């Protein structure tokens, strides 16, 4: 499991994936913005400042490949763009529905969850908890306005 940029670059190399400048910059961006869960647009707008040959489609295609090799996970955000997560440890998300921030959290009660899934005769590929609400910053900003 690639926890560092160096490891991620190694996985890319081992799988014979071509390490283009774009791909390297996307990985660099993800690993230097850990836990920010950026959208492809955010990655594009940041990287395109330094690399003007980049198009949004290139970013999407590269993210698709990186996902295939397990270097990035997609987070589907209701009512918003797909976000990308390079925290590959098993974790869950707190989603602020006010500012769109996604916060990682760790919690395990695996046995009960597995029982529930097995009872439904469902074969799960992925299971995580998503809690929607208001982050601390949004809550305190709202508090200040009142
Ligand atoms: Zn918020
Ligand atoms: Zn996450």
TrEMBL record:
Top-rank taxon, per record: Bacteria
Keywords, ordered alphabetically: DNA-binding, Repressor, Transcription, Transcription regulation, Zinc
Gene3D superfamilies recorded: 3.30.1490.190, Winged helix-like DNA-binding domain superfamily/Winged helix DNA-binding domain
SUPFAM superfamilies: Winged helix' DNA-binding domain
Pfam families for the chain: FUR
Family from the record: Belongs to the Fur family.
Protein's recorded name: Fur family transcriptional regulator
């Amino acid at each position: 499991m690639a926890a560092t940029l160096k490891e991620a670059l190694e996985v890319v190399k081992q799988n014979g994936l071509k390490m283009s400048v774009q791909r390297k910059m996307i990985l660099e961006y993800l690993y230097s913005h850990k836990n920010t869960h950026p959208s492809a647009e955010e990655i594009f707008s940041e990287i395109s400042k330094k690399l003007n040959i980049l198009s949004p489609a290139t970013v999407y295609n590269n993210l698709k490949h990186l996902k295939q090799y397990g270097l990035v996970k997609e987070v589907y955000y209701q009512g918003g763009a797909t976000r990308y997560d390079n925290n590959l440890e098993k974790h869950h998300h707190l989603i602020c529905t006010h500012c769109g921030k996604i916060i990682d959290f760790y919690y395990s009660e695996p046995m009960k969850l597995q029982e529930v899934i097995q009872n439904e005769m469902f074969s799960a590929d992925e299971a995580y908890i998503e809690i929607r609400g208001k982050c601390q910053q949004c809550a305190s900003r709202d508090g200040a306005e009142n």
